[in-house]
Amino acid sequence: MVRVLVTDYQEQEQNAAILGGKALHLFRLKQWGLRVPRFVVLSAQAYFQWRSNDQVLPESIKEELEKHITNWDAKYFAVRSSMAAEDGVQASYAGMMDTFLFVPSSQVITAVNKCFDSADSKRAQIYHEKHAQAREHESAAVVIQEMIFADASGVAFSRAPVGDSSLCYVESAFGLGEGVVSGTVEVDRFYADRWENLVESHIAQKQIMVAHNREAFQPPYTHQVEVSEEMATKATLESEMVLEVVRATLRIERNL
Fold first, then answer.
1. 23 contacts 40 by C-beta, under 8 angstroms
2. Mean pLDDT over all residues of the chain?
3. Omega of the bond prior to 220 within 30 degrees of 0, cis?
4. Residue 89 above 60 pLDDT?
């Protein structure tokens, strides 16, 4: 039987149709020994119950979720979409469902409902139509994860997507990763070889960063702020931090 609330690794549940691409990869990272902030997944089974319950999360699921995350004693949460076809070979589904950062505990259920609702949004339906092979995967899951207060965030590739593909590539910015993945902030770029030697660094003149908006009472709970003049030309990651990211990225590659 497929669980509605998935908290740990069970072999029979490790597929994208149940957990969605993002959640499945989080469980794999955890299994491989990578550091992953605490998380729980509302599976596709929860999504189907939500749809059959007039697009409202059933009370039994709400109670189980709230009981679980209360034990974390976390102040804020990330409520993240995880579509069945996400990060797949045929389609990425990046940005098709909503994701909410720095969600206070009192608003987690509301954010989950909004996240599920976005699976039926116009943009998601258009994407389905453009990627016919993904239509059989029209289900969704949601990751509820402990929110991390990040000084810097970024993305990493074990093979540089542009230029010398034998090199690992890391890009990072101050603040939250939302600005990096959306391309709205200036990023530092680092290249390292596969023997964990830093080969090249490009430090940007940073002007803005994405940070927690402590005055927000509804989504979005983040906003853009100016980077201080003192920090603008500083590297977001020190050399050893870059190499630590590279080591983790190569470890992931070896497990794939």
1. no
2. 89
3. yes
4. no
